[in-house]
Amino acid sequence: MLAVHSLRRSALLPRSARIRCFPLHLIHIAPRPFSTSTTALDTKDATLDASYVRHGRTDASSTPRQYPPLPDPVSGWPTPWITAEDFERYMGALYDNGWGIRFSSAHSKPTTHPSRVVPELLKTYHFGSDELAVKFVEDLKELMSEEHHHCVLRVANTQVTIYTHTHSARPTLGSKNAPGITLRDVRFAMLVDSLYSNESVAKDAGDASSSHVQIPSLSWDEYQNSIRTSMAPGGV
Ligand SMILES: C[C@H](O)[C@H](O)[C@H]1CNC2=NC(N)=NC(=O)C2=N1
């Protein structure tokens, strides 16, 4: 619990400052629902120190790009889709840090929404072992519960892909509700990156970035066009 609060406060500080914000003896993780030993933030398991993250990338582009200030927690439902201003403010840094946008039909429901296409943010993280990937998922579960925001996870051995959209969302004022990308997702994406890098930084693990999936970085206009062409008949 404390770890997530600390994370929020320090999410956007430079790495060196973050290290100062995370004296390991102060970090406490609430008990886990299942017990694959400790988390990477936990001080008890020194054997996991150096390998939470796979250090495949040593090029300059692997340095995480600094994010603008974290959006405040969003209250109320449905949540508005991100605006052109939000897109301008956050998407450049999200793209540079390996996030992408996809339009997914995986969320359609045969009975109510047979051909629904949902815009969402996604990113794949790579780990040094299956166990470390599972530990990251445990930490994500805590973050999801703290944020009251739930993403879809795909765990494939040492890779964890995160897909995040907001179910209860609204494209524009007065329109019908439709799932999509909101500031809840932007905030969640930034917090997940921070979780990932803080855990490895706290352990002095070196390169804290993940390998980036090659997903085209849509401009706002392309994003709007994709929404128009790929969303359910009638548009949004
Ligand atoms: C009442 C509760 O907060 C809502 O059901 C939340 C839970 N988590 C959620 N997560 C996501 N991704 N989208 C939502 O609309 C959503 N709704």
Describe the secondary structure blueprint for this structure.
Elements: H1 2-10, H2 15-21, E1 79-80, H3 84-96, E2 100-104, E3 118-126, H4 130-147, E4 152-156, E5 159-164, E6 169-170, H5 183-202, H6 220-230
Parallel strand pairs: 1-6
Antiparallel strand pairs: 2-3, 3-5, 4-5
Bound molecules: the ligand C[C@H](O)[C@H](O)[C@H]1CNC2=NC(N)=NC(=O)C2=N1.
Ligand H2B binds next to loops.
Short description:
This protein is of the alpha+beta class and 236 residues long.
Structure description:
The protein is an alpha+beta fold and 236 residues long. The chain has a single domain, classed as Gyrase A, domain 2, CATH 3.30.1360. 33% of the residues lie in helices and 12% in strands. The chain contains six helices and six strands; from the N terminus they run ααβαββαβββαα. It has helices spanning 2-10, 15-21, 84-96, 130-147, 183-202, 220-230; strands at residues 79-80, 100-104, 118-126, 152-156, 159-164, 169-170. The strands form two sheets. Strands 2-3-5-4 form a four-stranded antiparallel sheet. It has a two-stranded parallel sheet with strand order 1-6. A hairpin with a 2-residue loop joins strand 4 (152-156) and strand 5 (159-164). The radius of gyration is 18 Å and the shape is globular. The N and C termini lie far apart (38 Å). Mean pLDDT is 74; it is low at 1-7, 9-61 and 201-212. The ligand C[C@H](O)[C@H](O)[C@H]1CNC2=NC(N)=NC(=O)C2=N1 is lined by residues 148-150, 166-168.
